[in-house]
Amino acid sequence: MNSLTLHARDRTGLGKKISRLTSVTKHMKKNFPLFFLISTILFSQMSKAEPVMIVSDVYCMRWVEGRKGKASKEVESHLLGLLDGLSAGRQIPFWNYKEGISFQQVYLWMDKHCSENPESNVYFGAYELIDEQTQGLFKKNKP
Known about the structure:
single chain; mainly alpha; 2 domains; 6 helices
């Protein structure tokens, strides 16, 4: 084998390598937006809990009336949703904290709160209940 033949073989091998490299580059360019999106999601702070504004238009007067009348399921469901949202937002196990709390205990707590604070909003009662039930952990875990 002379040097000219060896040189020709190297060129052929190099050609195959360049062809493969060009193919890989095309695939990288094609899939770059997808790769970038996945990387951004994985390494961003989007997965951390963010503060959420909660709007509640159920006041204690409505709570008391609702509990006495046909709207009890409506106001009770509203309260349960508030408690679920607040505990999820702060990542606190409200329902299972220590010995736990039942729906009936929650309703009775809110009945007492609203009879003592008729001008209050059910949201503020839920906030106080969750903090009381978690022994102050709720207020300590502010975002």
